[in-house]
Structures are given as C-alpha cells and as structure tokens.
Amino acid sequence: xxxxxxxxxxxxxxxxxxxxxxxxxxxxxxxxxxxxxxxxxxxxxxxxxxxxxxxxxxxxxxxxxxxxxxxxxxxxxxxxxxxxxxxxxxxxxxxxxxxxxxxxxxxxxxxxxxxxxxxxxxxxxxxxxxxxxxxxxxxxxxxxxxxxxxxxxxxxxxxxxxxxxxxxxxxxxxxxxxxxxxxxxxxxxxxxxxxxxxxxxxxxxxxxxxxxxxxxxxxxxxxxxxxxxxxxxxxxxxxxxxxxxxxxxxxxxxxxxxxxxxxxxxxxxxxxxxxxxxxxxxxxxxxxxxxxxxxxxxxxxxxxxxxxxxxxxxxxxxxxxxxxxxxxxxxxxxxxxxxxxxxxxxxxxxxxxxxxxxxxxxxxxxxxxxxxxxxxxxxxxxxxxxxxxxxxxxxxxxxxxxxxxxxxxxxxxxxxxxxxxxxxxxxxxxxxxxxxxxxxxxxxxxxxxxxxxxxxxxxxxxxxxxxxxxxxxxxxxxxxxxxxxxxxxxxxxxxxxxxxxxxxxxxxxxxxxxxxxxxxxxxxxxxxxxxxxxxxxxxxxxxxxxxxxxxxxxxxxxxxxxxxxxxxxxxxxxxxxxxxxxxxxxxxxxxxxxxxxxxxxxxxxxxxxxxxxxxxxxxxxxxxxxxxxxxxxxxxxxxxxxxxxxxxxxxxxxxxxxxxxxxxxxxxxxxxxxxxxxxxxxxxxxxxxxxxxxxxxxxxxxxxxxxxxxxxxxxxxxxxxxxxx
Length: 725
Known about the structure:
Blueprint: H1 4-7, H2 12-18, E1 25-29, H3 35-48, E2 57-61, H4 64-78, E3 86-89, H5 90-100, E4 112-113, H6 116-129, H7 139-151, H8 165-184, E5 186-187, H9 189-202, H10 204-213, E6 216-219, H11 227-236, E7 243-247, H12 262-265, H13 267-270, E8 275-279, H14 287-297, E9 318-325, H15 326-342, E10 350-354, H16 360-369, E11 374-376, H17 386-399, H18 404-410, H19 420-433, H20 437-446, H21 452-472, H22 477-488, H23 490-495, H24 500-518, H25 531-543, E12 555-559, H26 560-563, E13 568-573, H27 592-604, E14 607-621, E15 624-627, H28 632-635, E16 642-646, E17 680-683, E18 687-695, E19 702-707, E20 711-715, E21 722-724
Parallel strand pairs: 1-7, 1-8, 2-3, 2-6, 4-5, 6-7, 9-14, 9-16, 10-12, 10-13, 11-12, 13-14
Antiparallel strand pairs: 14-15, 17-18, 17-21, 18-19, 19-20
Helix pairs in contact: 2-3, 3-4, 5-9, 6-7, 9-10, 9-11, 14-27, 15-16, 17-18, 17-21, 17-25, 19-20, 20-21, 21-22, 22-24
C-alpha cells in the first residue's frame, strides 16, 4: 500500500517516530515541533503500513477538544471513519470501560458521575452528619485531601488511622464519603480513574481482555500524567509494552494538580528497551525567541535534554520593558497593541500573559480606557454555569430518582417554600432508613411528619418531577430538554429578572436545547444507555475539563498555565519579578522553582514573531505597594537577544537583573548605610529578618530582607526604621 502521504510531509525526526518499530517509545516533542502530526501519522502508519486493525488502537488525550481534533486529522489522513478506534480523554475512556464492566467494578448500572460542586455539597452533608464544624474542617480542604489520596490510588482503608486527631478525622470523613457514594451509586472524577485501575488490578479476565484488544496505546502530553493514570497505562500495556508516549519534560507545569514529570523521566527504566526520539525542529517561533527560551530552560537540572532550533529567520530582538509600576506597564502594553492593530494586524493575534490572575486588573482598565475589546480567556465554561447545572439536575433526577446531589440542588429552585428545616428532616430520615433523599421525601410527606405548609411544598415538588417524567417519556433529547426548562419554571424564574445577567442566563438555558439537539454521543459498546443518560454523562465530563470558548477578534488575556498549547504572533509576558514570577511559593518549596522556570519557557515559546517581556519597579498587588526586583529568569537570557526599553518614569537607572540571588552581593553593596548582606534586623511591622540584597546609595538605598514571618520584602531604610540586632 502507498504510504507516501503519511511519511512525505514529515521531517527526519518525525519520520523516525512515526515509523518506529513496535515496542515502547518516548517522543520528546519540544514546543511547536509537530507532536499532534506525529501522533496522527503514527496511527495512520500502524493501520496502513503495519496492517493494524483500527480496533487495536487506543489513543489518550487530556481534553475532548484534542480528541476531536485527533479524530478529524486521522479521518482526513486515512479517508476512513475512526469509529473503531478508542480515542478520548483518560476520564472519558475509563468511564466507557466502567459502563461496560459496572458489575465487575462493583457499581450499579445507573451509576452517576458527580462534578466538583456536587462533590463539595456531599462532603458538606457528611461533615454535618459527623457533627464537624466547617470552620475547623473546611469542606474545600477535605475535598482536596480526598481527591489527592484518590489520585495517588489510596483508599480510606489504606490510610493509617493514626493517633493524630486531624488524621483520624480525615479518615472518618473519607470512610463516610466512600460509603455514601457506594450506597448512592455516585462516582466523582478521581473515582472514575481509581475504580478503573482497581478493575484492571483485581480482575485478571477483564485486564487480559483489554490488553489483547489494544495492541497499540498512544498517549499525548505524557508529562501531565499523574500517579493513577501512569499505573493504569502500565497495566494496560503490561503484556507487550507497546506504549507510544509523546511529551515534553520542559513543559511540565501542572505539578500543583498532581502531574508527575517523573513519569516521563523514568520511562526508560520502567519500559525495557524504550526508544527515545527527540523532536527539536520548531515550526512556530523565530530564531531569537527560541535561543532565549533555550537559554532559560537549560538552567534546570535533571532534564532529558534537547535544544529547539528553526529554519525560520532570527526575527526581531526580544524587547524588555522596565516599567515604573503596573499602570505604566499596562499603558505600554496597550499602546504597543494599538500600534500593532493600526499596522493592519488582528487583535486576536495578541496575548497578554501573566503569572497571577490578580495582574489582569490593570490591563483590563487600560484596554477599556482605550476602547479595545478583550477577553479574559478561561472563564466559566458552558456546562459549569450555574443555570445549566440547575437544568441538568432536573434532567438527572428525572432519569434517576436516587440522585441525592440533584435532589438537593433543585428541591427549592425556583424557590417553592422548602426551607432548611424541612431538608434537614428529609436528610435525617435518609440517614436513619439508609434510603435516598427522594424516597425519604416521599416517606415524610405520606406519613405526615412535616407541618402542613412544608409538606404541601415538598409534595408539589415530588408531583412536579413525576409529571415532567411522564410528559417527556419517549420524547427525543431536544424535546426532553425543552420540556424540563418550561415545566420546571427555570426559564420563567430568570425571565422575571430584567437584568442583563439574568437575560444571559435565559440565553444559556435556551442554548442548552440547541446543545441537546446537536448532541452526537461518542461510540459506546453499551447499547443499554439511552440518549439522556449519555448526554448527562457527557455534560459532567465536559464540565471537568479545560474547554475554551469561541474566540472573537479581541485581545486575549490569560494566565501562563492557561496559555499552554496556544500560539500567537505577538506575546507580552508581564510581571517578571522576584516573588511574582517566580512566585514566592516557589522560593520556599522544594522543586517549585524548576516548575516556575518551565512555566517561563512555556510562556516564551507561545510567541511566533514578537515577544515582549516586562517588569515593574513598584507593583501594587492585593492592596499593597511592593518594591520589586526583576526576575532571575531575565538574567538567564543572553544580552544579544534583548533590546531594553526604559520607562521615562523610572526612579532609578535601569539595571540588568543579576544572575545570582544568594546573599553574595557585589562589592559595591558590601556595606551601605550600616547594612550588608547577612545583617540581622528588626522591623516594627514585619519583625525579625536578615538582609539579603542592597541596591542604591544614600536616601535611595533599598534593602531586600527575608523576614521570618512574612518572607522577602524590599524596604527603604530612609523611610522605615530598621533596628540592627
């Protein structure tokens, strides 16, 4: 078979990866090096050159958007439908497996996926049942700890009860949470993966069935896998080790949410005979941008090692702007964008990147003042919006009366006179009788355990749900959604409010009907599920991932974490200051500084044609003015790639940031105004600390002090009394 269309568009390194012999392979794909092309062409090669059946291929991505893009590219490449291939996210594929093996996994067939908000409400309910004060046991913290343990594949039974009261309490909450979820058939996002891992571990027949089915497993963004995902992949590929992983250790920036760059770094050890292939040719950025990014990232230790290069011209120098404050910084950025747009360029080709979301305020103010449209990228997504969750809760309760999270969410929405006392009584019966809240609500109404007004309100809600269920029986998904919105009163509830916010909610609810009409389920082997169940499962999965909204022609503002995977002709990377970027926490926690440097590398390599870097001499954040020191990352870029731009409002000469941020200062700062690095001082507000760095002369001298209580601060001794200790 002619496979020239598969290999001809590839460069040498890409061709080596695509045509690699069967066996474990790790493709180190640098930023902009064509990793998606390699993945899709690898699948094309397996099918057309190696004679692999599409049903023997499993490809894992991290977002549904990436999965859809992969499917589209494969279909275009092969001119064949991808219906036989398993292509999706970790959560989507594992959910599919659990639906097919629900009994083996210890789940009811109608198990329900709950999102983060539903999980939070359930944990609050459990804390109340255990008589634990939320002021001392914050539900969000308990939720985070439970999810952390699950992502490390630890059940409550595997936790040491311990003598520590905090550990004992966490153990009690986790145990109660597991028991409640099992009784009600609820599955949270972390549970989807954990339950699938346990299914493969504990059931040899199921494990071997899928090991034989999937001869080739491909994984995108491998550096972002967590402990449980990696363990699942190793089990799935244990019989042949045909794992084809694509990732980049230099772009591992999600350690704070469980990603383990170590999975990539130990690949060779875990998979015997693994082939390592490096994609280093960049097709995105100019030469100067790549050279500067390489210079920054090479300061990290423990890298697998690669250096990006390009055949593109060197392009313009990187421009470094030293601003007097955050307003000056924002004004410079906006005025530069205005010049860019006047030159015939589009606004949506521009991105303003920052480390902290709090930085966006100054840019938003200046953009509004200039009349320039913008979007803060990464806001609430469709299925995360409150009004959409309300409608879906009605649909879930109609589909499954045992859904306690849905019952609690909508029992008094729109308001129908069902108060907290009524709900508490329903919960008490639910606990004592070990039944769902729907069943207990019917019981307390039928046995007249409530005051007449409360019983009437609760009874009308029960009748409403039953009435809607009868009305939508045997209707298509679009009609079900429309009837739910009309009969529940949600549409009328928001239409009564004439504010723009409420009208936006009405538009979102109306769009839900369109979403239902356009819904096409992913291929499933479980023909027992109806369209409503599939739609609700899809909505829960979509709400759990980072899906972006459609773009308009407007400037894009976003955090550096959000920017990963995107590219723009013009990029502003702002706030490059010690304590802000790298973030203060990274200076205090082991391993965090290297992740911050990777984050800087990711930000720099978003730029295609022009990159601006900026820092402010004084920055007002969280209501306080902070004297800053330019980021160490700036000092790591060789001077030949930088064009420095000076703000006319700077109060001190623009100084190139030093590479060293230890207490070893230069000769000129050994002793000024009685201070020198290592001097112990006391401040009336911040307490005791040690001088780390000194800048300036006379009244303009400022010292950086590492205070025991509040960390690093810049102080002007001329205005703040410092006592030598």
